[in-house]
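Students often ask why we bother encoding 3D structure as a string. The short answer is that it lets us treat folding as translation between two languages. Here is a chain of 306 residues written in the first language.
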Amino acid sequence: MASKRNLIGATVFALPFMLFSINAHAVPSYARQTGMACAACHTVYPELTAFGRSFKMNGYTLTGIKEVQSTSTPAASGLKLSGIPPMSAMLQTQFQTSKANGDEYLLPNEFSLFFAGEISPKMGSFIQMTLEQGGNFELDNTDIRYATHSGGTTIGVTVNNSPTVQDLWNSTPAWGYPFTHGADIAAPVVADALAQNVAGIGGYADWGNGIYTELTAYRETNEFDAPGGSADPVRIRGLAPYWRLAWHTTMSGGDELMIGTYGMQASTYSVAGGAAGPADKFTDTAVDTQYEHPFANSNNMVSVHA
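And here it is in the second language, the structure alphabet:
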């Protein structure tokens, strides 16, 4: 009976994410881990609240569930096993109709499994594995984080495969508006082109005075389409640095304001025909801002992004 309840609960948590075709995800395993509703971390998915940003910055480790303490041997006495596996799933389907071609169904359009949650008291993960239409099962957006504290400063390390997937303000290319497949607003082309084609490791810090900084270096793992629009496959020469700087504050009434900048630099060269061509150097920078106004005595909130 308990296992049936867990299955029913997991299904109920998963339904909103199965019914809406979104390119970035709130996963039910986080809700099960924290014991909180999804709205504690999100406004409109995948926008994050201040609590959601703190949860992400601290390595996805906040937990409200019971853990199984291993006491079988002295060496294993520090091992903590979650009572609920940090697994989630998402199914995206597609239906379109036209007078000329009739109806067309795509099932599944995309199917994803997530390993998302606390790994240790200071380390957690967002790992997405996706089955695409063509039958390929690949590692999708991934962010593994370690976070600790020194005084009022939060210090962390991120290992990820998509520049900006690790960003605390989910308005950057990996997460940004309109949050669905289709035409996107203008975004730094380097970060877009490198998604899931690189591996990066970096450090970040929230200094406790409203300043957040991050520096991550990427190396390519696959050939990808050139950021400039060329159809020839390209590779990165050396490392591609990504940076993030943001100032954020909580104002009276709980309003949240962030003004920031981020950017990336990459030197790419063509590998068409098996020979390395000349390098093109791309430097992209962006400026963004975000404002959130929660309504008193209500679960409602207005958020503005630019």
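Translate back mentally: The two ends are 49 Å apart (CA to CA). Keep this in mind for the problem set.
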